[in-house]
Amino acid sequence: SLNSTTNLHNGVKMPWMGLGVYKMDVENGEARDAVLSAIEVGYRSIDTASFYKNEEGVGEALQKTNVPREDLFITTKVWNDEQGYEETLEAFERSRKKLGLEYLDLYLIHWPVPGKYKDTWKALEKLYNDGKVKAIGVSNFLPHHLDELLKDATIKPMVNQVELHPQLNQPELRAYCDEHDIQLEAWSPLARGKFFDDPIIQELAEKYSKTPAQVILRWDFQHGIVTIPKSSSKERQSENADIFDFELSAREMNRLESLNEDERIGPHPDEFD
Ligand code: NAD
């Protein structure tokens, strides 16, 4: 269920599924309402970022809900132009205030800004050691970024959030993160619907009386990958969460691996700007 969690390497429990809120608006109440409906559906994990400019909207929902703080898992991220040691400590405070929280559950480096991400990591280690955040991690890091980070890190990232879906199934990164006990988290797990009409997805959806989105999210779950599908609609939030009552066979999982095209919808982590 939406309550099931994975243990990060420091013992913190992170829900297998959360709500992504990229592109949700603050002014018209979209972010607030989507978070509140997701919480009603049973979601306990929310993924935002300072870059999304909707931390206030998420914060409004967190003010309103009756679900206790300790049952929620709130992630935000430090944006590229906020990186560096002091800058990151300040960015964290800005995000924390916008969210209206005493502490965060997970703070991520959004992208590996060359020449900066190691200083940024030092700031995350300080925030963690000061108890302001329960877990720290990275996003869009390739193995070579992680190798570089681990040379001087005193704390190993607990999470790496990357673009990952059956058309970009990231075998090397999955192996690397497994080996280092870093939890992988998939962004754009549905690839924004790009391959819902793939014949294999369609066939499996029909076989299990599930939707294409549910087949894809189940594939992640069986691989031990955390997902954060985005939807503002309560119906789709419920649909995406309803993946805990069927199981894909080993052969079916393999058929889904065959969808890999190493094709990204977002930028390559060595080429973003
Ligand atoms: P996604 O793969 O979650 O797809 C979302 C889109 O699919 C939306 O347009 C939604 O309307 C539609 N959708 C959702 N559920 C559906 C369903 N059941 N049936 C049909 N359509 C459905 O894409 P995303 O929003 O890019 O990624 C999810 C989250 O990942 C983001 O909201 C954000 O929190 C995070 N993210 C992180 C990064 C990063 O760099 N770290 C980058 C992009 C996204």
From TrEMBL:
<feature type="domain" description="NADP-dependent oxidoreductase">
    <location>
        <begin position="26"/>
        <end position="261"/>
    </location>
</feature>
<dbReference type="InterPro" id="IPR044500">
    <property type="entry name" value="AKR5G"/>
</dbReference>
<feature type="active site" description="Proton donor">
    <location>
        <position position="52"/>
    </location>
</feature>
<dbReference type="InterPro" id="IPR023210">
    <property type="entry name" value="NADP_OxRdtase_dom"/>
</dbReference>
<keyword id="KW-0521">NADP</keyword>
<comment type="similarity">
    <text>Belongs to the aldo/keto reductase family.</text>
</comment>
<feature type="region of interest" description="Disordered">
    <location>
        <begin position="257"/>
        <end position="273"/>
    </location>
</feature>
<keyword id="KW-0560">Oxidoreductase</keyword>
<dbReference type="Pfam" id="PF00248">
    <property type="entry name" value="Aldo_ket_red"/>
</dbReference>
<dbReference type="InterPro" id="IPR020471">
    <property type="entry name" value="AKR"/>
</dbReference>
<feature type="site" description="Lowers pKa of active site Tyr">
    <location>
        <position position="77"/>
    </location>
</feature>
<dbReference type="GO" id="GO:0016616">
    <property type="term" value="F:oxidoreductase activity, acting on the CH-OH group of donors, NAD or NADP as acceptor"/>
</dbReference>
<dbReference type="InterPro" id="IPR018170">
    <property type="entry name" value="Aldo/ket_reductase_CS"/>
</dbReference>
<feature type="compositionally biased region" description="Basic and acidic residues">
    <location>
        <begin position="261"/>
        <end position="273"/>
    </location>
</feature>
<dbReference type="InterPro" id="IPR036812">
    <property type="entry name" value="NAD(P)_OxRdtase_dom_sf"/>
</dbReference>
<protein>
    <submittedName>
        <fullName>Glyoxal reductase</fullName>
    </submittedName>
</protein>
<feature type="binding site">
    <location>
        <position position="110"/>
    </location>
    <ligand>
        <name>substrate</name>
    </ligand>
</feature>
